[in-house]
Amino acid sequence: MKRLNTEIDQRSEDLVETTRALIQIPTLNPPGDHYRDICEYLEARLARSGFSSTFVRAEGSLGDSEKYPRWNIVCRHEGAGAGECVHFNSHTDVVSVGEDWTRDPFGGEVDGDRIYGRGACDMKGGLAASIIAAEAFIAACPDYRGAIEISGTADEETGGFGGVAYLAENGWFDPARVQHVIIPEPLNKDRICIGHRGVWWAEIETKGRIAHGSMPFLGDCAVRHMTAVLQEMEDSLFPALAERRTAMPVVPEGARQSTLNINAIHGGLPEQEEGYTGLPSACVPDRCVITIDRRFLAEEELAEVKGEITALLDRLAAHRPDFSYEVRDLFEVHPVMADRDAPVVTTVSAAIREVMGIDPDYVVSPGTYDQKHIDRIGRLRNCIAYGPGILELAHQPDEWIGITDMKESAAVMALSLAELQAPDYSMKAEKGG
Fold first, then answer.
1. Residue 426 class from Cβ within 10 Å (0-12 exposed, 13-18 middle, 19+ buried)?
2. Pairing verdict, β 191-196 and 180-183
3. Which end of the chain has fewer surrounding CB within 10 Å, N or C?
4. Which helix (H) or strand (E) holds 76?
5. How far apart are the C-alpha atoms of 62 and 66, rounded to whole Å?
6. What pairing do the DSSP bridges indicate for beta strands 191-196 and 361-365?
């Protein structure tokens, strides 16, 4: 442990500069800017420590285009002999900047123990920490067995289909080639995230009949029909969801129940052409659409979640004249949760105790992340999220990552590598070697 800490301490400046360099590449998604640039940076950065790199474009995936190609990179370091592969997966995309920043979102400004910038917390700081952890471990244990992979993948913020999902579909997370996966998402340095809730996104459309706005009795207002839908949700669905609780250790506490968010609503005429400043025409709206974001628990079945919405709409159709609707699926993910006794869970747990002197919390994320694709498509259950950063800072203005937090998380990751791939070193470390 002492040798690993020394190696990490010697790389403190490199850790900061790597994080800053990653932040300064503005990989905004949407639309998917600079994916190739950040992959080329990672290739050059990791070549310094003997990693080979493979570029993978997710051709044909959701979001991929000639203007915005979905580039991913997988960097691999081979050990001295046969053994298991530990894979650190980080997404390289960041969300839009938004308002109310007091610092340059892509400056990578250092102020005391913090590095500021969009993506600093979510999750370029975690990516930098995994790089330093791997390099410190390789330096301390050059005769380790197996392989280490570090990937930078696209589109996690928009579902991950041009990133980890594509890699999983093409065998990169086959349990025959990768045995352990750590995703350095910002779940706090003393927590291990073992999974996430499920999600179903859908559109609900109510239909009406267009007519002149001065004679609405000749038409059928789709917005009024949608008002009835929303009222039924308020009266029956939201109270029912609030009563459902999960045994999953979801954080924060409010997310331990089933939830539904009305993500968007639009009714009536399409939006006017850009630059038009006149009034809309007088028409009864013949369609209204809402987008729903339903987060569900391990105790719920997706078919029942969907059926609950259909049943609500059918109840309205039974007594509301001329009520008709359509439901369109947009996106769905089942809940996932690694076993508490999975090798990567127990290994990282022991490393947190060794580095920080505390027992880790085991948590489940309220939202999904790329574990869903590794688990469901790759069929690799031995996967967790563990990394530096405070979850509540993600997507916020003046987002930042703590340098000390990154160093401690890097130490946890490096010690985990020692336990999984160089147990002789790990046992010596326990004896003070």
1. buried
2. unpaired
3. C
4. strand 71-78
5. 13
6. parallel
Tokens 């968007």: give the residue.
264
- What is the rounded distance in angstroms from the CA atom of residue 285 to the CA atom of residue 267? 6
Q: Which domains occur in the chain, in start order?
A: 2-196+335-430 (3.40.630.10), 198-332 (3.30.70.360)
**Rounded to whole angstroms, how far apart are CA atoms 302 and 307?**
8
Give, in degrees to the nearest 5, the angle at Cα 262 between 256 and 263.
105
Find the catalytic residue in 64, 93, 122, 205: 93
Which of these, 394, 335, 402, lies nearest to 157 by C-alpha position?
A: 394
Q: Is the Cα dihedral 67, 377, 180, 412 positive or negative?
A: positive
The reported pLDDT for the residue numbered 279 is: 87
Do 162 and 330 touch, CB atoms closer than 8 A?
no
Q: Give bridge partners of residue 191 from the DSSP assignment.
A: 361
The H-or-E segment that residue 219 falls in is none
Report residue 186 as tokens: 């910002």
CA distance 341 to 143: 28
CB-based contacts of 288, cutoff 8 Å, min separation 6? 205, 206, 208, 222, 223, 225, 226, 265, 266, 267, 268
Residue 182 CA: distances (Å) to CA of 4, 185, 200, 296, 374: 19, 9, 25, 24, 11
> How far apart, in whole angstroms, are the C-alpha atoms of residue 23 and residue 167?
24
Listed as ranges, residues in the chain with pLDDT below 70 are 271-272, 426-433
Active site residue 104: no
Nearest to 387 by CA among 147, 124, 67, 97: 124
Note whether 327 and 202 are within 8 A (CB): yes
DSSP secondary-structure letter at 188? -
With beta carbons less than 8 A apart as the criterion, state whether 198 and 292 touch.
Answer: no
Annotated active-site residue in 64, 122, 135, 156: 156
> In the chain, what is the straight-line distance between the N-terminal and C-terminal CA atoms, in Å?
8
The pLDDT assigned to 428 comes to 55
**Any catalytic annotation for residue 93?**
yes
Note the pLDDT of residue 1: 75
pLDDT tens digits along 365-403: 998 999 999 999 999 999 999 999 998 899 999 999 999
